[in-house]
Amino acid sequence: MGYHRAGFEVVGVDIAPQSHYPFEFHQGDAIEYIVEHGREFDVIHASPPCQAHSVMTKRWGQEVVSSHINLIPATRAALQATGKPYIIENVEGARDELIRPVMLCGTMFGLGLKAGNQLRRHRYFECWGFEPGLTPTCKHNKKQTVLVCGNSGGRSRRDGCMFHTADERRKAMDIDWMTNAELVQAIPPAYTEWIGRRIVAADTEYSEHIEEKEVEFLREENERLRQQIEELERRI
């Protein structure tokens, strides 16, 4: 949704069916789809499975962590082979796997609940083919944060977080079309809208640069033609 808000036409791909996905959707292996169709797109965003890097997974022990495959390198290889600008998104535990990632947090965009509970959902983005620029600043307060993981319901507290209801999670994430199971895998649209607008800005700057070069070339060409005409007139 964020890229749509930034002006992009969005096409989604996932190995699992996504009945609530609001745009064109293709079910299948994302890496295979990139290999076959990646060059048909202007920009590609990929979110490889995060379980191998998630703090929640690591709480279950190394055996559980080892059962999940790190697909970031394979995803990157497929993306770079397209020659297109791309984004790879993942959780904080994958930061060292990403190349010069930028971090976005819900507090940068005022996400949370009216009571002041913030969405501090840190996500990291490897951006290739464009420069995202400086990010906003985290604005954490001292209230309990809205935790979007696992099952919703109740109001138990753990590690400075509150387990809110599914509706409260939707409000905090600014996502009203997903189930709770879908929410825990999602990133807020505000994040991808911010990135999408950086892509558009970078493309505009490039286009303006090319346009300036073209104007300069035409001026030089006109001057050259003017001089040739003057020389011909003198000869006549």
Q: Could you please describe the fold and organization of this structure?
A:
With 236 residues, this protein is of the alpha/beta class. It has one domain (2-208): Rossmann fold (3-Layer(aba) Sandwich), CATH 3.40.50. It is 39% helix and 14% strand. It has eight helices and nine strands. It has helices at residues 2-5, 30-37, 55-58, 62-66, 72-82, 166-173, 180-183, 189-235, and strands at residues 11-14, 24-27, 44-46, 86-91, 102-104, 123-128, 145-146, 157-158, 161-162. The strands form three sheets. Strands 3-4-6-5 form a four-stranded mixed beta sheet, covered by helices on one side. A three-stranded mixed beta sheet has the order 7-9-8, with no helix packed on it. The chain has a two-stranded parallel ribbon with strand order 1-2. A hairpin with a 2-residue loop joins β8 and β9. The radius of gyration is 24 Å and the shape is elongated.
Keywords:
9 strands; Rossmann fold; 236 residues; elongated; alpha/beta; three-stranded mixed sheet
Average pLDDT figure: 83
Gross morphology? elongated
Write the CATH architecture name. Answer: 3-Layer(aba) Sandwich
CATH class: Alpha Beta
| SS element count, helices | 8
Q: Kindly identify the CATH topology.
A: Rossmann fold
Low-confidence stretches: 154-159
Elements, N to C (H/E): HEEHEHHHEEEEEEHHH
Strand content bin: 5-15%
